[in-house]
Amino acid sequence: MTSTVEAPTATSAFESYLSAVRAGDRRRAFAAVDEARESGMTVARIYLEVLQPTLREIGRLWQQNEISVADEHLATAITQAAMARLYEQVFVWQPGTGHTLIAACADVERHEIGLRMLCDLLELEGWETTYLGAMVPVESLVAMVLKRRPTAVALSIAMAPHLPRLRTMIQAIRETMGDAQPLIVVGGRPFLDDPELATRLGADFTAPDASAAVEMLRVRAEGRG
Amino acid sequence: MEPRAQTEIRLPDGLRAFPGALLLLSCEGQVLDSNGRLEAALERSLVGTNFADALDVDSSRDKWLRALTAVTSGAGRDAGTACELVLAGHESLNEPREFSVLAEGDSDTIYVVEHPRDPRLDRMREQVTGVNSELANTQRDLLRERGRLKHALEELQQRGAELERSNRALDEFARVVSHDLKAPLRGIANAAAWVTKDLGDSLPEEARSHLDLMREQIKSMQAMIAGVLRYARAGRRHAEDETIDVRALLEEIVTLLQPGKDATITIDTEMPTLRTARAPLQQVFQNLLDNAIKHARRDDVRVRVRCRADGELYEFSVSDNGAGIPQRDQERIWGLFNNLAAAHGVEGTGIGLAVVRRVVESQGGRIWVESAEGSGATFKFQWPAQAAEESRKS
Questions:
Q1: What is the ipTM of this complex?
Q2: Domains of chain A by range and CATH?
Q3: Exposed end of chain B (fewer CB within 10 Å): N or C?
Q4: Does A73 touch chain B (CB under 8 A)?
Q5: Chain B residues in contact with A161 (beta carbon < 8 A)
Q6: What average pLDDT does this structure show over B251-264?
């Protein structure tokens, strides 16, 4: 496939998915994803070129006061379901790479699609991932990291005021893990505005989206062997 | 700003008790008065500040400014507008507050009215979200597990097919070998018989005894070849289950083996009636009883058969009062052609126990021996089978 062929596919899939989600029509949304699959798009591309831009657009529409937060919740729910369907269709168990990831939202909010995308895409690459959700107490996270000794920990955050909590989490992991440091990747809105913030907080890196995070994790995990 | 002018414009007292936030703003968005509800959430005073400063920059500030413009200048002037906004600070992006923005008649003031929220609904929504997330986790776990099981099943099927192939190959090998070995052996046996017959009485005594020895060795070799074939086939035939009265089976076997008149064979009263294949069970008992009688090397041998049921697993034991098996030989007896008794002049190919073990294991059971030198031996084996109806004799 060449990019000249791919572009219109992704665009039309995005448009039909967005229109279905705006209408709150779950089945039509699933059909749009199915079509995208049949046209040969990979799961990663559907996540990043159909689902993610749709949610961004939904967010923009909310800011434009064109839709309510209830519509946004519905769009998120439909997208979660669409991801689960997609994951079910393509998931094939394979002997793993041996790499593991623990993912958690660092603040109190569930804005889990990004992390869920990261987990799914890594699973498809043969990683073993555990998604802990939001509101994970720092001690539980650290205990889990100590027990599982993951290759990487992914933490996401939605709002800048919660950054101190994220910093506390990173410090706790760093102090506990001694010589066996996991890679720590952070993501979320505050890092889109200021990527340097990641290293200032003690993380290893940040990535603008799930696919970029997968790529960076793969390179760095292999570097560590 | 003139403080005096601002204090003049206030919310009517009757509205202050409104359950949501209520703000009175200037056209520029300056807060002139408030019923105090938003202050509680923001932990600071709002009066005298611009309402835009109270809002989350990324998500809500521009949105608010557009709503303000609409109400003060445009289409929204009469109807007002509704708009969801997130407060600056620690409020969730997922649950913005909903406000109506209304221009008041001819005056230049604006009312900002929060739609009161039902905290129960908020809690329910939070719980539904939590449950959803859990479900997504569980679903992925299940999918992973299913994938793993599918993979394991495929591997198992592949191994099963490999095993089947190798078993067939072993069968074929044993058949060919025993057939090919039998033919020359038969030739030798014939030749020896002819020599004996042709030379008749003229055969010197010593030569005759050599020929006798030769015939014995040939017989032994034939028995070993038959043993190899038996071993290869042991447990490989799938016989139909039938109802077996184990006591009756044992009695038949004892009759067949014809123990000497001084021998005592005791079969415990507690013998089950099972649904199982006859031939393999018969083969196992026959071998064990035969061994017990022969290897005791005494005429007054006493053999006892017992049974203990453990669910659908029956544990049978065959004990004798013979010489016993020394600890060091207890593993060796299960090997092919390891006949400890050969040295003691007991007839046999030494393949019996190897066959027995193969049969028992092919049924999913296990066999072992408990013995101390000089105090007899007890062979125990497990036989998975279902009891036939009215299994136990009372």
A1: 0.77
A2: 3-90 (1.10.1240.10), 100-224 (3.40.50.280)
A3: C
A4: yes
A5: 89-90
A6: 88
